[in-house]
Amino acid sequence: MSKIKAGGSSKNNHDSPGQRLGVKLSGGQKAKVGQIIVRQIGMTKRPGPGTKMSVNFTIHAAKDGVVAFKTRRVRTFTGRTVPRTEVSVV
């Protein structure tokens, strides 16, 4: 017989902080050069005119102006077209 009680293993105790993703400037708001408009994982929103996308898919303003969101149809790899949101600074 063992002299020591069995130590239970703890499960489901991992918790990481949120990544603060999402839209930082909404449509109609003013944006300055380099300001973050959208933080995202993957290309859920596409960069349009007046914006640029960084390596981690963050969309920044490439010039001063007003942020605008519009839906555009984009062709996928298979050839079908799907609606996607395009972010632009005008």
Description:
It is a single chain. The protein has no helices and 8 strands. It has 90 residues and is mostly beta strands. The protein has one domain: Beta Barrel (OB fold (Dihydrolipoamide Acetyltransferase, E2P)), CATH 2.40.50.100. It is elongated. The model has no long low-confidence stretch (mean pLDDT 93).
Please tally the helical runs, counting DSSP H or I stretches of 4 or more residues. 0
Domain module count: 1
Q: Largest sheet, described in full?
A: 4 strands, antiparallel
Order of helices and strands: EEEEEEEE
Gyration radius from CA atoms, angstroms? 22 Å
The CATH superfamily turns out to be RNA polymerase II/Efflux pump adaptor protein, barrel-sandwich hybrid domain
Strand composition percent: 35-45%
**Alpha-carbon distance between the two ends:** 77 Å
Strand arrangement, major sheet: 1-3-6-5
- Annotated CATH topology: OB fold (Dihydrolipoamide Acetyltransferase, E2P)
Which class of secondary structure composition applies to the elements? Answer: mainly beta
Residue share in helices?
A: under 10%
Shape: elongated
The CATH architecture name reads Beta Barrel
